[in-house]
Design brief:
single chain, alpha/beta, Rossmann fold, 9 helices, about 35% helix
Length: about 270
């Protein structure tokens, strides 16, 4: 089977064609996704992407689904995973209605507001979410640790470990050098803007870190249909019509748990008759 994983980052698997804007991994092909997938029509049996569409505008996301439709063979499968807006909203309302004397309400409220908004509005890398996760990880509050873990990835996000000179040298690739030039250019532009105005005109997050849109199952299904897919179905992280999908460990960890918490998974086949 020919299988495409677009916007993969470093989350790749053997037997898949992996493409993204940039990656330090030599197994990932560098592609500007917004100029189209560099493959012919009806080429792949499977197209997959996880936690990517939310980093684009709604119109850009539709373009990526149309490209997925184009490169899929008739009856080929598209599988998309994104954060679940409905789940976050339901959890927000649940927490808001907790009794005022609930000892965990304040901390839970602080988290759920971050979950809903931070990646949409943050102006610096890791944002309020990174601060909260680090604070929680270093606390003795077992309840809050387990709760946050249930709402996010299986493992906490921690600040990256310091790199030695030799580990930095080993990671240097032509792709990394090119990306660094872009960042340096942006730093120069930043210095030309008065400091007290920078937060109003600049976003200092990493490329692809912020969210541009959010989806629930209903909204993502609408997007699928606009791209040409007719019958969409909801799935779980460990269920798929893709043969032997779980063996790739893209939506699951090696211990069988979900790789990304609070997610929705939608699959659809490209119609045979068009």
């Amino acid at each position: 089977m020919k299988k495409l994983n677009f916007g993969c980052g470093d989350k790749i698997a053997e037997g898949w064609t992996n493409i993204d804007f940039h990656s330090a991994n030599s197994d990932v092909k560098r592609v500007n996704l917004l100029t189209g997938f560099p493959y012919p029509d009806n080429y792949f049996d499977v197209v997959y992407s996880s936690h990517v569409l939310e980093h684009f505008t709604k119109s850009q996301a539709l373009y990526l689904l149309k490209e997925s439709f184009r490169v899929l063979k008739p009856n080929g499968i598209l599988r998309i995973a994104v954060p679940d807006l409905e789940s976050s909203c339901q959890e927000y309302l649940r927490i808001l209605n907790l009794p005022e004397d609930d000892q965990n309400k304040s901390a839970l409220y602080e988290w759920i507001i971050i979950e809903l908004l931070d990646q949409l509005v943050r102006l610096r890398t890791r944002g309020e979410m990174g601060d909260f996760l680090e604070k929680t990880q270093n606390s003795d509050n077992k309840f809050l640790k387990e709760y946050v873990q249930s709402r996010t990835e299986t493992h906490y996000i921690s600040p990256p470990a310091p790199s030695t000179f030799f580990t930095k040298i080993q990671k240097i690739t032509p792709q990394l050098i090119s990306t660094k030039f872009v960042y340096w250019y942006l730093v120069i532009i930043k210095k030309l803007i008065p400091k007290n105005l920078r937060s109003l005109v600049l976003v200092e997050t990493a490329i692809g870190e912020r969210h541009q849109w959010m989806y629930d199952q209903y909204g993502l299904t609408i997007l699928f249909k606009k791209a040409g897919f007719n019958e969409c179905r909801s799935s779980n992280f460990n269920e798929s019509a893709i043969p032997e999908f779980n063996d790739s460990y893209l939506d699951s960890n090696y211990d069988g748990t979900s790789y990304k918490g609070n997610s929705i998974y939608i699959e659809a086949n490209k119609p045979i008759l068009q």
